[in-house]
Design brief:
This protein is mainly alpha-helical and 312 residues long. It contains 16 helices and two strands.
């Protein structure tokens, strides 16, 4: 094993894997975000596929750096074996090593390329638009029509007019020609328009509402289950659903520890129980000092239990 790990070919493959994992991590981290949108996902997936395809015949950044460090036949002061023939063997097997991964990635996200609706959504990504929107191809209009027709039943059910939605897009396109700035992101462009022009184009923005809420990943759901398991441990199985939900909401959306003042909440918890929090034991020592710091006017009254001694 040590002999294989000290070979030049092995070191080259480790560098190749680092390049591959760096690209795949971008896809993974994108899907783990809570604020992702479809156009961004499509762009990241497409870019990753293209970069991996380039790696079939071109060295990545990590691989280039390792090659520069191995010019003297060693890597990090460790002598390497098979240096004269290692790179040639690596090149001969690199494509066969990477092609299954690329094929798997393409099959996993094939719907992003083949699905007509998903492709139409890509046309609304401002990163794909020309600097001058007057040069925007008619394909964007056709793609908007595809979206309107696909979601027609939902639009009609919620009181929207599909024909009006298409007409509003054509008007909005003219508005964008005067206010569009090249390089603007999806979030900034459509977020600003949602706030400022939604009343002017209500039917079209209903289509955009549907696009924005399309489920893309389950990472946020998995985080919720992990949070629930951290709160409802084996020793807290008696938590009811409402209490568990409140604790999860506080954990997800509450103040940070630095900004949260817990004194009043602890004081209320201490005094509001049906039974004493420390049954049969009056606060004493450090506990008594802590209770006084909480600002309670009086300590909970606790009746000390005494054993009845049987006397002859």
């Amino acid at each position: 094993m040590l002999k294989k790990m000290s070979s030049y070919k092995f070191v080259l493959y480790m560098a190749l894997h680092m390049d591959i994992l760096e690209e795949l991590s971008r896809v993974s981290l994108t899907f783990q975000r809570a604020d992702i949108y479809l156009a961004e996902v499509l762009e990241v997936v497409r870019t990753t596929e293209e970069v991996l395809q380039d790696m079939l015949g071109k060295d990545g950044a990590k691989l280039q750096a390792v090659k520069r460090q191995c010019t003297d036949g060693s890597y990090r002061n460790i002598a390497l074996t098979g240096v004269p023939t290692g790179y040639g063997e690596f090149l001969a097997s690199r494509a066969a090593h990477m092609q299954p991964l690329i094929t798997c990635l393409e099959e996993r996200f094939s719907s992003f390329r083949d699905n007509e609706v998903l492709s139409a959504i890509t046309s609304l990504n401002p990163k794909t638009w020309p600097e001058n929107l007057k040069d925007l191809s008619c394909k964007v209009d056709d793609d908007v029509r595809v979206l309107v027709e696909h979601f027609e039943a939902v639009l009609v059910e919620h009181g929207c007019n599909p024909n009006a939605a298409m007409a509003e897009w054509l008007r909005l396109r003219k508005v964008l020609q005067h206010h569009y700035k090249p390089g603007v992101t999806w979030k900034k462009l459509w977020g600003t328009l949602f706030l400022s022009r939604q009343e002017d184009f209500p039917n079209f923005f209903h289509v955009m509402d549907i696009i924005q809420v399309l489920p893309l990943a389950t990472a946020i759901v998995e985080r919720g289950f992990s949070l629930m398991n951290r709160i409802k441990t084996d020793r807290r199985v008696r938590l009811n659903t409402r209490t568990l939900n409140d604790l999860m909401v506080i954990s997800l959306e509450g103040l940070s520890e630095d900004n949260h003042i817990s004194g009043p909440a602890v004081s209320r918890w201490y005094k509001a129980g049906k039974q004493s929090r420390r049954p049969c034991v009056e606060p004493y020592g450090p506990r008594l000092a802590d209770a006084n710091e909480l600002g309670s006017d009086e300590e909970p009254s606790v009746e000390l239990e005494t054993e009845n001694e049987n006397t002859d």
